[in-house]
Amino acid sequence: MELSSLESNFWAVAPGVIGAVGLLFSAFFYFRVKALPEGDATMNRIAGYIREGAMAFLVREYKVLAVYCAVIAVIIGLTLGGLASGSFVLGAFLSLLAGYIGMKAATYANVRTAQAARTGSKPNALLVALDGGAVMGLAVAGLGLVGMGGVYYAFQGHSQLAPILHSFAVGASSIALFARVGGGIYTKAADVGSDIAGKVIENIPEDDPRNPGVIADNVGDNVGDVAGMGADIYESMVAALVAAMAIALTANATELSRLVVDPAATTASAKVAGVVLPLVLSAVGLVVSLLSIFIARAFKHLNPAQVLRSALILPPVILVGLSFVMMQVFGLSQNITVALAAGAFGGAIIGLVTDYYTSSTPVQRIAEASITGAGTNLIRGLAVGMESVGISMATIALVAYIADRALGLYGIAMAAVGMLGGTAVVMTVDAYGPISDNAGGISEMSGLGPEVRAITDELDAVGNTTAAIGKGFAIGSATLTVIALFSAFNLEVNHTRIAAGLPEMSLLLTNPNVIVGMLLGSILPFLVGASTMLAVGRAAGAIVEEIGRQFREIPGLMELKADPDPKKIVDIATKSALREMIFPGLIAIVAPPLVGWVLGPSALAGLLAGALMVGATMALYMANAGGAWDNAKKYIEKGKLPGHAKGSQVHKAAVVGDMVGDPFKDTSGPGVAILIKVMSVVSLLVASLIALR
Amino acid sequence: MELSSLESNFWAVAPGVIGAVGLLFSAFFYFRVKALPEGDATMNRIAGYIREGAMAFLVREYKVLAVYCAVIAVIIGLTLGGLASGSFVLGAFLSLLAGYIGMKAATYANVRTAQAARTGSKPNALLVALDGGAVMGLAVAGLGLVGMGGVYYAFQGHSQLAPILHSFAVGASSIALFARVGGGIYTKAADVGSDIAGKVIENIPEDDPRNPGVIADNVGDNVGDVAGMGADIYESMVAALVAAMAIALTANATELSRLVVDPAATTASAKVAGVVLPLVLSAVGLVVSLLSIFIARAFKHLNPAQVLRSALILPPVILVGLSFVMMQVFGLSQNITVALAAGAFGGAIIGLVTDYYTSSTPVQRIAEASITGAGTNLIRGLAVGMESVGISMATIALVAYIADRALGLYGIAMAAVGMLGGTAVVMTVDAYGPISDNAGGISEMSGLGPEVRAITDELDAVGNTTAAIGKGFAIGSATLTVIALFSAFNLEVNHTRIAAGLPEMSLLLTNPNVIVGMLLGSILPFLVGASTMLAVGRAAGAIVEEIGRQFREIPGLMELKADPDPKKIVDIATKSALREMIFPGLIAIVAPPLVGWVLGPSALAGLLAGALMVGATMALYMANAGGAWDNAKKYIEKGKLPGHAKGSQVHKAAVVGDMVGDPFKDTSGPGVAILIKVMSVVSLLVASLIALR
């Protein structure tokens, strides 16, 4: 085969077809999980509450988002045309669909995992949770490929291909933002609220059936860590693809010639190769991920931690190998493989660093610091979070450096594609976490006894670590994607300016417009961080009040003679989350066009750069500090700090750290990470509109 | 008068002379304070401990810094010549001298303030504390002007003027860094350590004479908030002056022509005006500040809060008026006044914003959040800190925008000079804080009774707010100064490159070297934040242990029959602080030349930009969150939260927040703020050495 064969219809259609195959496997796992036994009546009642609450949230959230989508679709339609508008709606719709499928599966898998644990089989319980997660993982990657591949196939020769692709990404991104922030506020408000009302004020254990907030807490795991995370990772994949494709679309002959080995290759062929490769490599990533999932399933009898870690490490390695072969076959430069490998292995390093900071010595030190109280626990935890930024960001810098040396800015985009090669597996393992967490909650509330709880607890503990690794991947790939999107934005602006006979915009660091933009950009992550923290605080406060009211006013509740009213809590959490997600969401979507319109494209470029530096570091800091606090608390609960068991003063100090860490790691940190991505795709979309300001 | 008169010796010599006059007033206040009555034997014994501990720390710190200075002086001597080396030593020496004088005065003023309060006169107590602070304030501004003015006078025609000025700034900066970080670790380790051992573990009140850590806590106020803060503000002033002078020195004819009204004015005259004006305006600022101090003294009978706030607001207003007159007289552009005014009023706005976040509604909300425990107190406090970044940074962006529109990058530097116009007053009011805090501690330990304590408490509470305002000023001016220094760095690099026949370095935001530099730069504030937080945690831990040992092992201590051994605690704090200040200090000094040498000047420019965005926002976040937590605790202690008095569970939750806020606001926040300044001046110094990489 040679380069020009990439121009054939086969390669344009293959990614979408492979995506569809992924969706078939997703359906297979869905029905497989649903057919499993679902336990006794109590378990089913509780699982029903959770499913109902989760679906109710999703439906109400989707109504709000439908209004948002309608407004934006009209604006895009008026400024960029109907095709772009339709593409935006498609990008948004597929994101919502992925969230819906994944959450439905997760709320079937949770109770079936508990049931498998009830029969005493850890491997079977692991398998159910993993299969439940795979529905989401394959749906996310499959819909991403079907959507992007389909749009590319339909419009590959169209003059409006660029705005159509950008609009698709904006659809995916803005849904991801709202889903992540809304879900994040929901899950942590319910978590913190139930903990304060139950553990802190009433001194009853976690997941106690008397606590009406426990159902909402379990609903939150689904809407935040499944639906929210799914939309986030779907968006990452789409954004990385769009960044690489957009750079290839605007690249000139010299830049394109770096992609090919044969100096006689035509620029047109090289351009098609540059545009189609990200899709093709992502499709290969999906195949590899699918393999990985089946390998993990085959080794279900091994230690769960090892099984899941291997599932995460395997895909990048295989992907890089296959990329090497493909570049040889097509006569493309192996520098593409170098850039891809830098991203893939960089992601693994960031994962390992995150793993270290959230489960190793630093966690032990935080636990020990709890001996002198909550103050020292917090000081230590904040310091751990700050320190963790170092190696992760240095790794990202190194990846960017290598990828740039290999292939310039296109290389940086390919590094992001490489880091996200294992999207399906990463998302599978991520969704596995809340499923086993839910399984534990259902076991506790149904009174299934300590042996069952021991199995679900072990599965859950592994999920915590893999969740931290997943967050590291997400933030690392976000940073690379944003750098690539940033370059695509600049190319787009200058393209428009040159076409209008204007000079290129000045992107010099000494340009005061750039500096003012950077100063303004550095504010935004803090505003999103503040508003999401406050949102969780406010919503949790309302939940604490309502739980307290139920404890006081429902006769016989504390004596286990009456049932609590969990629906009331679910309702409060839903309303709060939907109300509170608006402001941070609007910041991300309104700031770029506003700054671009008022201060011009140079200031907007500065805004993106400032937001990226502050946002990427803040997201790592918050995610890792939160993960470390959580595991420090668990460290004490496992009795690893001699003389300070669960329930001791020292444990209570660690609970305070965990409480602060909850919104840090699951609301504000992810919210800030997604902020910078949304800002970048929105900027790319409006680039041509503000280019002449 | 006309422009060329600025070239006369009179204007070159005036700043130094006015600086010397400032020093005479500093001496006047010093001897005035020392001559006041110093109270009874117990008060004197305690004050003696504090003075002894503070001086012992300073002497040991200075020994360490002498070694550092010797090493750097040799390196500078070998690379940039003997004059630069000498200038570095002078800059460092004057910083140390300012710290020494100020701290000596503060440790005399504290006990005399307590004595004045003991006689029942609040106005007299206010006066003593204010006079004690004025010694430091006038010494800092006076030595700054004498030093910079003297160096400029001596070398005004010298070809090596630029490196000589830069070296002076590096001397001032690096001492400031170590003094601020070392002092910050000392004061917060002693504060947190005594609080945990006393308030948390033993449940005895603050400043209780049985607690051996109380002396160290009071020593810490002096070494951190007097000597450390003094070195910091001295450095700010020097750096702002150097930035403006350096830009004027490298400016071309077109840029210089913007400074003058008369189009016939020679470039040489305009250049001299540009170089000498920052010094002259700072000298005017010192005169205005001196006036302000005397006006404040005259109104001592009014409410202390009003007196101090007016003292801070007055100088910028008068300075701007005088600048207007001067520009008219010399035929200089009123755009200089515009830039100066933007900085001066911008500083006031940042001060008011800081005041709001650390003493108004947000504080009340943090106090209320304590009702549901330490977790919600912390979530709220972190959110307040994040939110506070918004308006402050937006103000800085606006100031930069106006100053740039008025006069380009020179305008930004002049805005920094304008913001620091009231240095002497700001430092006076800043040093007033720890003096009245110390007076309270001495009153408590000497058993002077509640009436005396009520007076010192009121003075102290005002000091807290003014300290927050001072921090806002410091961070705001630091950001502007760094932007100006950054420009000076770029001019210097390109100057060298063009002289060597190379093209200018690429400072495009899309240059991968710049991006990699920015990613690396964004890490550094987090590393300094982490290492200083950990340092405080570690040192506080050692202090808690030693206090616990004394409580257990000194017979009769808890029954007030035996005295504790405060010197042991002072010794631990001293050793820890000196050991722990090394790593963060070295980051700031080593990172710029290292990155510049390995990755080149573009990457170094990126490093500075990344560190600036993250550092400025992190510093504001940490300083304001810390101030808000502190005052939320005080809010509860004053009984403003009905039903939750001092000692209640709610108060204990607020104490946790305050404990976390302590290193945030007094160690890590200021450490990060000074990091970005030191990195900038070091970069400026090495610019010519790495320009060709």
From TrEMBL, chains A, B:
One of its GO terms (cellular component) is plasma membrane. The chain crosses the membrane at residues 12-31, 65-84, 90-111, 132-155, 161-179, 274-299, 311-330, 336-357, 378-403, 409-429, 473-493, 513-536, 581-599, 605-624, 672-692. NCBIfam families: PRK00733.3-5, PRK00733.3-6, V_PPase. It is a multi-pass membrane protein. Homodimer. GO terms for molecular function: diphosphate hydrolysis-driven proton transmembrane transporter activity; inorganic diphosphate phosphatase activity; magnesium ion binding; potassium ion binding. Belongs to the H(+)-translocating pyrophosphatase (TC 3.A.10) family. K(+)-stimulated subfamily. PANTHER family: K(+)-INSENSITIVE PYROPHOSPHATE-ENERGIZED PROTON PUMP (PTHR31998). It catalyses: Na(+)(in) + diphosphate + H2O = Na(+)(out) + 2 phosphate + H(+). Requires K(+) for maximal activity. The keyword Transport applies. Its cofactor is Mg(2+). This is Putative K(+)-stimulated pyrophosphate-energized sodium pump.
